[in-house]
């Protein structure tokens, strides 16, 4: 059984402005080269291929103007961080170096603690400064960003120790520390809403966020399988951990991962359309709270639809995007390609 995306993909009309702004910002803070060859992870063609401005406009189609620009820079920085950690620490299995780097990076959350010394630090310091006006949201983001560092360190540790995580541990870590819950935080910033803590902390809303995170992560694992296993030589991928844990072949691991994705998407929609509205009724939520939750739920649906569409439209996970860097793929069978990994038909 294959499940079609249940939500239509839309795009913010300010996509071109977000694309131009985030690209100019990436150059300004040094994400496209700063004179230090150790920091040069991307070139201009990479930025064009990945098109994070389009990604932001797809996953936040109702965002406009300066707020869309800001969030586009956050996403650009987060992907740079992911690729930087992969190139500088995952490839050489350098766990101590990753720990030192991420510890220093975390200090950028406190202005004036130390001057930024590399593009990742300059980018994060600038983003904190630009986001500081959103005081309450900024505090929540500050609590979530360290989880991104935990995820990066955990992935380096898996490679350094030769450990392939078990599926349950893998999903739990990705759910807590991966980028999807962080993206859900950005959703509230983009929409200009803040769900009251007494609602945000309830089981249905918490499970909604977890199901959302699982759909995002498992979809990425399917479409990024070749890039992560052949180019990045990584083991932090749901298909890899499923195959290793069950001792099964890749086709079966792909099928099982796809089925799990479909189950989590079905749960997400049940929570969004039934359990969360029932919660609001039971709690006698005021109209403003009910409207904020409804907008948040719709924002998450938009995010899932836009994420899927962006994966189809850009070269981030296409083979040619890393072959042009002179990467030599291993001889013989190389696993399943992106087309075979699609969780939904095109």
Question: What's the main sheet like?
Answer: none
**CATH homologous superfamily identity of the largest domain:** Farnesyl Diphosphate Synthase
Low-confidence stretches: 329-346
In sequence order, what are the helices and strands, one letter per element? HHHHHHHHHHHHHHHHH
Spatial extent as radius of gyration: 20 Å
Shape label: globular
**Total of helices:** 17
* Number of beta strands: 0
The secondary structure category is mainly alpha
Q: What would the keywords be for this entry?
A:
346 residues, Farnesyl Diphosphate Synthase, 2 domains, mainly alpha
Explain how this protein is built.
The chain is mainly α and 346 residues long. The chain folds into two domains: 11-135, Farnesyl Diphosphate Synthase, CATH 1.10.600.10; 164-319, Farnesyl Diphosphate Synthase (Orthogonal Bundle). It contains 17 helices and no strands. Helix 1 crosses helix 3 (52-59) and helix 3 (52-59) runs antiparallel to helix 15 (287-313). It is globular and about 55 Å long.
Topology overview:
Elements: H1 15-29, H2 44-50, H3 52-59, H4 65-90, H5 95-106, H6 119-131, H7 135-161, H8 167-177, H9 179-191, H10 197-200, H11 203-223, H12 225-231, H13 238-246, H14 250-282, H15 287-313, H16 320-323, H17 338-341
Helix pairs in contact: 1-3, 1-4, 3-4, 3-15, 4-6, 4-7, 4-9, 5-7, 7-8, 7-9, 8-9, 8-11, 9-11, 9-15, 11-14, 11-15, 13-14
Provide a concise account of the structure shown.
This protein has 2 domains: 11-135, Farnesyl Diphosphate Synthase (Orthogonal Bundle), CATH 1.10.600.10; 164-319, Orthogonal Bundle (Farnesyl Diphosphate Synthase), CATH 1.10.600.
